[in-house]
Amino acid sequence: MSDMRVRFAPSPTGYLHIGGARTALFNYLLAQQAGGTFILRIEDTDVERSTQESVDAILAAMEWLGLDYDEGPYYQSERFDLYREKIQYLLECGKAYKCYCTEEELSQKREAAIEQGSKPQYDGTCRNLEAQRPGQPYVVRFKSTREGTTAFDDLIKGNISFNNSELDDMIIQRTDGTPTYNFVVVVDDAEMGLTHVVRGDDHVNNTPRQIQIYEALGYSVPQFAHVPMILGDDKKRLSKRHGATSVMAYRDMGYLPEAMVNYLVRLGWSHGDEEIFSKHELIEKFSLQNVGRSAGVFNPDKLLWLNEHYIKSGDPQRLGQLLLEYLERDGVVTAEGPDAAEVVKTLQDRSKTMLEMAQKAAFYYEDELEYDEKAVAKFITAEQAPIFSALKEALEQTTFDAEGIEQAFKQVLEQTGLKFGKVGQPARVALSGGTSAPGIYEVALVLGQDRCIARLNKAIAMCS
User: Fold this and answer.
1) What global pTM score does this model have?
2) How far is 336 from 91, CA to CA, in rounded Å?
3) How many other β-carbons are positioned within 10 Å of the β-carbon of residue 84?
């Protein structure tokens, strides 16, 4: 075990989106590789917007992706006493102050500062208004350092420096007494002993303010690594206009978690020309040194390609269990149907998603088969009735295994003098309802003798 401690800290104001899932994955891989600790913290200080539904969605997504955390979930809403204690400490030692300025006054100060050609700062009267307005609501502001620079060595982006004159006195406690994000994140990261903070690069501008708070509270400053954004194919920030951004939406669309994990890690990280990685290989090979500085571009086609790969190479038993879930979600009764693993074997090479596989597999389980009207008009006709009757008789008399089914079809071909297409395609429609089912021998074997005979009887009746 190492002393590395990392965290993923989502806000429960919605689903777990693609960017957040990638951040969680990077932290998970770092901890796994180093034998460190991966912490999950729910940042629910935004009381009005945080919901239990969102918490549940985040936890479900983490479980689906296989991102097991070692500690947590911790909830910031349960740690308010700690935050108040730290704010009071900063007030007492003069590193924070109560600000009674109204928004109108602050706006005037900003305008005056801009007219003077300087950046707005909350100094002078703002830092000395407590005595002038007793009993009025106030916010607590952190008294930032104004001189010099605040710099840090980002493990992805390199050295980053900010002029302290550009930093305002940020609010660390609102008028209702609740603490703000930039303050509580420092307290939590420090109190939880984080050694590395790996997060999206939309937090880069927060970092100098947070570093000053670390130092004011006497905490050690962790190492920072800011991961580039994920963009859509139009090079704009990934959003709903680019398609689904919720991780669980992709599960609902039939994507496998291993495909999503493999795809997410490649959005910014590379290892030579390799594209496909097992989780074990990712833990072994992942490093922040190979995370690029430029934004990743989300490519749905690449994700679909990976998903297809994992379906083709997946364990039929495991995929079978997943298939049943998708079928039952669509209202298909599966209790009396064929073995799901055997169904999967017939469709693995024909399906890009589990949802697509479920749609193609439904005919195996339906008591009342849904027929394609065009296929019926062409292949279930009076002319086909003798073929169906002969095939039914042959299948009734054969040993119902792969070899026996093939022999039954050959027997019908010999009896009728027809080529295989004249028998196989009508039989496919009779047994599956359409013309795009897997190989007819496979279909018959998976359906079983009783279902095959029943469906051929139905086809014969439809021919009259």
Assistant:
1) 0.90
2) 70
3) 14
Tell whether omega for the bond before 73 is within 30 degrees of 0, i.e. cis. Answer: yes
Are 225 and 197 within 8 A, CB to CB? Answer: yes
Q: Calculate helix-pair angle for 80-92, 181-191, nearest 10 degrees.
A: 100
Q: Whole-angstrom Cα distance, residue 346 to residue 344? A: 5
H-type helices in 227-299, by residue range?
247-252, 257-265, 279-285
What are the residues facing 99 on neighbouring strands?
139
State residue 94 phi and psi, 5-degree precision.
Answer: 75, 20
Per-residue pLDDT of the chain (464 residues; tens, 9 = 90+): 689 999 999 999 989 999 999 999 999 999 999 999 999 999 998 888 889 999 999 999 999 999 999 999 999 999 999 999 999 999 999 999 998 877 677 667 667 766 766 555 544 445 554 445 666 788 999 999 989 999 999 999 999 999 999 898 999 999 999 999 999 999 999 999 999 999 999 999 999 999 999 999 999 999 999 999 998 888 888 776 766 688 999 999 999 999 999 999 999 999 988 999 999 999 999 999 999 999 989 999 999 999 999 999 999 999 999 999 999 999 999 998 999 999 999 999 999 999 999 999 999 999 899 999 999 999 999 999 999 999 999 999 999 999 999 999 999 999 999 999 999 999 999 999 999 989 999 999 999 999 999 999 999 999 97
Distances 313 to 277, 307, 310, 361 between C-alpha atoms, Å: 13, 10, 5, 18
Report the alpha-carbon angle 158-159-163, nearest 5.
Answer: 145
Rounded Cα–Cα distance for residues 59 and 70 (Å)? 14
Tokens 């002319």 -> residue = 383
List, by residue number, the catalytic residues.
240
Helix (H) or strand (E) holding 347, with range, is helix 340-347
**Chain position carrying tokens 């400490």:** 89
Query: Sign of the C-alpha dihedral, residues 427, 432, 435, 439?
Result: negative
Alpha helices per DSSP H over 80-157 = 80-92, 103-115
Separation of CA 168 from chain center: 36
Residue 262 backbone zone (phi > 0: left; psi -120 to 50: alpha; other: beta): alpha
